[in-house]
Design the sequence.
């Protein structure tokens, strides 16, 4: 239903009516800066989304990414694009513009607000809070844990409004106010792992962009001779498509690019995140740092400290989710992704794993007869993600496994402790 609501919003906006089919596809080709949509996980099409009628969810741990936001470093590319178009305004007025570029004749500007949660981002979180309350009416809590980022805290507040209603009796606590030696929400980058660096992702992006941006640049320069688009301008137009969708629900730029061009842009976003905080980050650093989350999950679901709650509502970033998935070996490609070639059949797709407002829901459930003992399930963005880490112990119908099997399968994580010998050697502590 949420996907239909988003598409209805897109279809009702002036810029998108004529490009509706294109925009429908675009939603799934913007990597981790995609608006929220229900995921289609790799090899999960046959998974049953409903638990047996004799089962009940006893405990839930939610890790939620903040909602749609404005650009961060990408804003400079959009601003450069605007300047290029301004400098060529006379040429554009006299040109025979193709249909998809006709909007340029009226002049193009942008009203993106960097960093901040957008109006649609607020709605995403409010809607998720409402749906969460409908899904788990028997579970509640009096505390929410958040990253100290302002957009994440605001996301938690909008979710709380949807989940609890007005004037909720709940506290929002940020990780910087806790005395944990390392946070499972923001374990890196930072002093906990000094060698963890996003520059690896930027390097991979630069390599891949050389393969596809020149082709688009040449194509648009042929359509608008004299404007003299640069590759940075094209990057700006691609980012404008993504962030205007995130901010306003529509962008004229989304109708400019061909499906193969959007697929190349999506791959750029995937290798950026894969090399920044997942499988191609050197020295197995991402799975190592992700063990903090996995060990916290196991601690809570096994009640190993005797203080577990039935519900945990926690808010962080795409990095939080990707680090956890890396420790679990989920959505892992073999061979690893490379900035030298497009991998159309890859498992690691951040459009599906960590769009804006991504929701990673861990359920512990028990059944009267269908299963023996507590079971565990992962629902990532409204779709069950099969727990392939459990191997033959995974139920092929539900993608779940017993809690005992899950714990035993995660021996890598359970054998790692913050600042033990392996941690310090990998992170350079």
Sequence:
């Amino acid at each position: 239903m949420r996907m239909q609501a988003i598409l209805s919003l897109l279809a009702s906006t002036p810029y998108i009516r004529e490009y509706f089919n294109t925009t429908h596809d675009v939603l799934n080709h913007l990597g981790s800066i995609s608006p929220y949509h229900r995921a289609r996980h790799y090899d999960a099409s046959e998974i049953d989304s409903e638990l047996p009628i004799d089962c009940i969810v006893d405990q839930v741990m939610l890790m939620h990414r903040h909602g749609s936001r404005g650009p961060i470093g990408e804003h400079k590319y959009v601003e450069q694009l605007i300047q290029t178009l301004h400098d060529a305004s006379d040429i554009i007025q006299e040109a025979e513009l193709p249909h998809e570029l006709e909007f340029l004749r009226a002049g193009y500007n942008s009203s993106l607000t960097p960093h901040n949660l957008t109006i649609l981002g607020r709605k995403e979180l409010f809607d998720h809070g409402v749906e969460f309350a409908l899904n788990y009416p028997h579970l509640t809590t009096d505390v929410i844990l958040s990253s100290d980022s302002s957009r994440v805290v605001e996301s938690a507040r909008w979710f709380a409004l949807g989940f609890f209603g007005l004037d909720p009796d709940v506290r929002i606590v940020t990780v910087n106010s806790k005395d944990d030696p390392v946070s499972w929400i923001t374990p890196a980058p930072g002093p906990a792992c000094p060698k963890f660096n996003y520059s690896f992702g930027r390097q991979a992006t630069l390599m891949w962009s050389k393969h596809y941006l020149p082709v688009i640049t040449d194509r648009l320069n042929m359509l608008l001779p004299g404007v003299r688009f640069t590759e940075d301008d094209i990057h700006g137009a691609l980012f404008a498509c993504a962030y205007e969708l995130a901010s306003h629900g529509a962008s004229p730029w989304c109708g400019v690019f061909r499906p193969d061009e959007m697929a190349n842009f999506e791959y750029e976003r995937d290798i950026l995140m894969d090399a920044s905080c997942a499988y191609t980050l050197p020295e197995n650093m991402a799975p190592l740092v992700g063990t903090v989350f996995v060990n916290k999950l196991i601690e809570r679901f096994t009640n190993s400290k005797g203080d577990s709650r039935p519900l945990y509502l926690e808010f962080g970033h795409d990095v939080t989710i990707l680090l956890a998935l890396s420790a679990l070996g989920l959505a892992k490609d073999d061979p690893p992704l490379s900035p030298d070639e497009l991998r159309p059949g890859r498992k690691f797709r951040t459009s599906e794993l960590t769009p804006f407002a991504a929701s990673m829901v861990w359920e512990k459930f028990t059944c009267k007869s269908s299963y023996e003992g507590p079971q565990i399930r992962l629902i990532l963005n409204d779709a069950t993600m099969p727990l392939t880490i459990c191997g033959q112990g995974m139920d092929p119908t539900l993608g779940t496994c017993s809690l005992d099997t899950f714990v035993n399968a995660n021996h890598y994580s359970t054998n790692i402790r913050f600042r033990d010998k392996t941690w310090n050697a990998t992170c350079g502590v």
